[in-house]
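# nightly structure sweep
# worker-07 picked up a monomer target from the shared queue
# config: single-sequence mode, recycle default, output format = structure tokens
# input follows
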Amino acid sequence: MSNTTVQVIKCRAAVAWEAGKPLVMEEVEVAPPQAGEVRLKILFTSLCHTDVYFWEAKGQTPLFPRIFGHEAGGIVESVGEGVTHLKPGDHALPVFTGECGDCPHCKSEESNMCDLLRINTDRGVMINDNQSRFSIKGQPIHHFVGTSTFSEYTVVHAGCVAKINPDAPLDKVCILSCGICTGLGATINVAKPKPGSSVAIFGLGAVGLAAAEGARISGASRIIGVDLVSSRFELAKKFGVNEFVNPKDHDKPVQQVIAEMTNGGVDRAVECTGSIQAMISAFECVHDGWGVAVLVGVPNKDDAFKTHPMNLLNERTLKGTFYGNYKPRTDLPNVVEKYMKGVSLFILNCASF
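# output follows
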């Protein structure tokens, strides 16, 4: 269905008119998809802390009015010119980053950081014409990270839409659009713990729990959760965490505590908080010679990572990751299939939240 045969759709959306002010349910007009775009009917959407962070607009350039939301599942309503991998009726997940398929990153087996479609939190328009597809009585409404799923209909670049198994429950797999893949992939694709190894997970929020699930799937025998909130340990047990450390309970740096617990350090560490101190601790708690630390959390813009160079020279490895190193269009359908086959229980366990 080309964009010459579809019309503007009027629907409801939760609009943020000002930073930190309650969202307002409004009737918005959603324009047809242009070339390379897809219009989705959003059936389920969830809330990520990133939505809250940019809604608060603390330390960022405010961009309002805006429609937030980026963890969602829906059905393709129409497609723009040139879109061939999607058609109306397909079940799909929109993702805040994309896969154009043509740039060096997309062609690399080692990267998922598409030159064209990687996340841009300062962009409030579509990339091909710098215009919004949302409006209220003629006033343009800004997009958010190319998804804006707090709307019954949204327009997304086709490279940011993953076609998935229509039998997958959209109310469950929608959370794969962001946090779950970010944590799960950080462990499975980047840290790559070996069976029987030890893994420390810093931060037991949704991303950290997904990272712990990745360690469980990988066969790690010791999964140590590190968090300032001790009550999180009980829930974390369902995701494979079998030991817990609260830094506030100790009078020495937590990396030293973990090193003493594990005879010199853990084999892998995954940091999921965004705290610069947690990042340093995660790196310094891995074992010399083979330890790998993976940074997932996003730090404040003025933070600086500081550690002694000998920690690197002693053959510890520090890595970063973006969206768990998953390519959205290529890899996300496979992650959904693994869930459908029961490989990962993460989404089922999320019912405990």
